[in-house]
Hints:
By secondary structure, the chain is of the alpha/beta class. It contains seven helices and nine strands, in the order H-E-E-E-H-E-H-E-E-H-E-H-E-E-H-H.
Amino acid sequence: MLPLxxxxxxxxxxxxxxxxxxxxxxxxFSLEICAGGGGQALGLETAGFQHxxxxxxxAHACETLxxxxxxxxxxxxxxxxxxxxxxxxxxLLAGGVPCxxxxxxxxxxxxxxxxxxxxxxxxxIEQARPAAIMLENVRGFxxxxxxxxRRDLIERLERYGYQAEWRxxxxxxxxxxxxxxxxxxxxxxxxxxxWFYWPDSYVQPATVGQTLGxxxxxxxxxxxx
Length: 225
């Protein structure tokens, strides 16, 4: 198991997943659940977070994470078997819990679907008490059908001492050449939430060709030789 509090490691001179935390007490540390192939993890890395745990059940996704970032603390495990107390005090708990229970492409069984892992995410939040929370899901979860479920989630977070809010963000408005609307939950302690604001979209959507043009004309050509 990883240390109870990643910031304690700074004082002891130890390391987490091969990543030395010596002298980085001012850094930001994150625990990510349902990490997949690392898309969100890369974004958090770019934002300055150091990952003390990336929990993922799929073995192929774990191998992808390890191949691209050998220093990351990849944990091949069902999140039901993860104890949040081992990460108590982490700066951010993030993740994209499974979408099928809420997708309009499925039956939208919500909490009646065994793949609904929001209860597990709440359990980990209660145990780890992160400074901030960021969870994402499909736009279907923003529909009227799940109003009560969303309200129940917010009320649970309020009992844990967080102020939380949902919003649909479109990835293409932030530089990603893909029509990928995501329903984002952000939760913070009330004093911190007073300083939070949702980002404004800042770019015109790019095409895949515009984004990958250089790779297509040079990098990919070399790989094909």
